Amino acid sequence: MGATTLAATSPWLRTFATVDESAHERCRLGLIGPGSRGRFLLSFLAQNPKCEIVAFADIYQPSLDEALMVVPTAKTYHDYRQLLEDKTIDGVVIATPLNTHYQIARDAFEAGKHVYCEKAIAYTMEETLDLYRRHLASGRIFFTGQQRLFDPRYIQVMELVHQGVFGEVAAIHAFWNRNGDWRREVPSPELERLINWRLYSESSKGLMTELACHQLQVGTWALGQLPSRVMGTGAITFWKDGREVYDNVHCIYEFEDGKQMTYASVISNKFYGLEEQILGNKGTVEPERGKYYFEDYGPAPAPAFVQMLMEWEDKIWGANTFAGSSWDPEVARNNPGEYILGKAPEADGTSLLTEAFVEAVCTATQPPRIAEEGYYATQLCLIGHEAIEQHKTLPFPEAMKIDYEPYGTKAPHR
Question: Do strands 260-266 and 291-294 pair parallel, antiparallel, or not at all (unpaired)?
Fold first, then answer.
């Protein structure tokens, strides 16, 4: 993709325009929450020559010990507020449990730090709005853990979708299926809710905040608009082990023009894995697989057993039922598709996301749309969770809208 097209599709990539000019710049970062996700981010940050990881904060000593194996020179704290007191630290990366994001990020902005916060960025819709406003008021950088924004597959897909290559997109089906109890080993019972925080309602909203947050953002990015209402259902259908969050959720997001986005997640079957299926009248895109398919792929001969069934139906009924055998599903099963980037995906956009955050901190420049995309991704997963909890169809609250031209939304006058 050319630089002009790239900038139009994903203007936040202008963050990298100053890479050469800022070659001698350095930023000092602290990592709050070096658990499994935090250390994954650390694996990229520690290799970035423009970044110095100078401190870790966590209430769980084993996590600090693991992080020190990567950066032995970093200071460690059990109270993140002590880390924020260090005026030489430019920014922080927050990878703690969901219910702690808001307070830590709020304190970080107040301490004058730039912030990268893992998704979802807050536990409630009100906290999410307040955090976004604090970002604007602080003038500090705000990144969220929406790595698909930096994934080359998704960037190319959005360019093609927005050009109309796949026709009019009427629906998006997103899903993320796993087969596992989502539990982690606990060395002693009193640490159960600390280590397995994702399973309990006081610290997590389960599949909607942990998984859906990524994929709902893909849907609104593709459609270029915000859904007007959402309905949903959820239950604990398989992992009945004392957890409080659902292991089976389904939501429908409806847009004003009638388009729909569905989201489903089941963690007792992994056969279909995860995907965002973007359905246009001329073609389909599966960005997670890195492939696209056109509708007018040439008709293939019916398999031998289908032809046999059709002949058998002819003899008995005198004509084929409907347009063909009633046993032949309407699928383009012989369409192999094409790889978006010419080959199978090898990684997601996390490395580029962390690089962009470092570049933004070094240049003290907030990339366009990054904070807003993260904001709405969190709000969409939270309202989906509320629709499930209330067993109602909920409108997207006007009070939660922000000024964001790509989705045509305006913050209400206050």
Answer: unpaired
